[in-house]
Amino acid sequence: MNDDNPRTLIDLLDSIVGCDARTWRTATLLLATAGAVGTVLLVAGASLVWGLLPLAALVPALRRGRA
């Protein structure tokens, strides 16, 4: 690779930071995986809360014995 004229983003990052392409690909894969897992957990948590909202509305009625 010619450091004066990098051809790819990986080459540019390599010339700035000094990590090779394999390290950058591994880091990118780990970040993408963490982002995907975080998104799944966020959607699952929101779905759970949304599903439990009707039950939360029943709690006062259950305490009064009117359900």
**Integer tally of domains:** 1
Order of helices and strands: HH
How many helices? The count is 2
pLDDT averaged residue by residue: 84
Main sheet record: none
Keywords: Membrane, Transmembrane, Transmembrane helix
Task: Set out the fold topology.
Layout: H1 9-17, H2 21-64
Question: Describe it for me?
Answer:
The chain crosses the membrane at residues 29-62. Keywords: Membrane, Transmembrane, Transmembrane helix. With 67 residues, this protein is mainly alpha-helical. The longest helix is centred in the middle third of the chain and has 44 residues, at 21-64. The termini are far apart. The protein is rod-shaped, with a radius of gyration of 25 Å. The model has no long low-confidence stretch (mean pLDDT 84). Helices cover 79% and strands 0% of the residues. The relative contact order is 0.07. It has one domain.
Quick gist of this model?
This protein has 67 residues and is mostly helical. Helix content is 79%, strand content 0%.
Salient structural properties:
single chain; 67 residues; 79% helix; rod-shaped
